[in-house]
Amino acid sequence: MEFIIRSAVPGDAAQIREIYAPYVLHTCVSFEFEVPSLEEITRRIDKSLKRYAFLVCEAQGAIVGYAYATEHRVRAAYRYSADTSVYIREGYQRQGLGRALYEALFDALLKRGIYTLVAGVALPNPGSVGLHKAMGFAEVGVYRNIGYKFGQWHDRMNLQKALRAYDTPEEAPSPTP
Predict the structure, then answer these.
(1) What percent of the chain has pLDDT over 70?
(2) Residue 118: which of 92, 109, 127 has the closest Cα?
(3) Is the dihedral angle over the CA atoms 101, 102, 108, 109 positive or is it negative?
């Protein structure tokens, strides 16, 4: 099966929502309780594309995964950092799509002047922890009992990856072309 990775467009919101919904409704991978509306997914795509990147992976014309970056924190000193996430449609996990999406995302973020990537993984989630570590992320700490969902407390592992050498930035990170 051939996979195509491309930049997301607002019209992808319905398929992205389909992929994300089971994570919200049936797992603690997402700390959201309700599946975001199509309008909210569209807003998130647009916001990510303005400054970072939002990528989708297609197979036979259907979106089977996506990865994106968002602002790490609002303070100006954080402008060279980004939070990253990747989600794969049920039935398509463990085929290398997460790795392929992240590689493309990292390349896009590197071109935009980002230095540091941050990921948060709700625990337990050995698949996500394994992917992040395989992609060069290192654990920097765990928030204990930080999220409460489905009647129990959950930890969140924080991971970080240097995307480039920490030289002096020449200019502010550039927006998505």
Answers:
(1) 97
(2) 109
(3) positive
Strand partners, 88: 65
The tokens describing 161, both together, are 């990856």
Q: Write the DSSP symbol of residue 78.
A: G
Tokens found for residue 28: 């603690």
Pick the CATH number of 3-162 from 3.40.50.1100, 3.90.700.10, 3.40.630.30, 3.30.70.141: 3.40.630.30
Residues 17/39, Cβ–Cβ less than 8 Å: no
- pTM check: above 0.85: yes
Domain boundaries, the chain: 3-162
pLDDT single digits (tens) 14-73: 999 999 999 999 999 999 999 999 999 999 999 999 999 999 999 999 999 999 999 999
Q: How far apart are CA 16 and CA 65, in angstroms?
A: 8
**Pairing label, strands 81-88, 62-71:** antiparallel
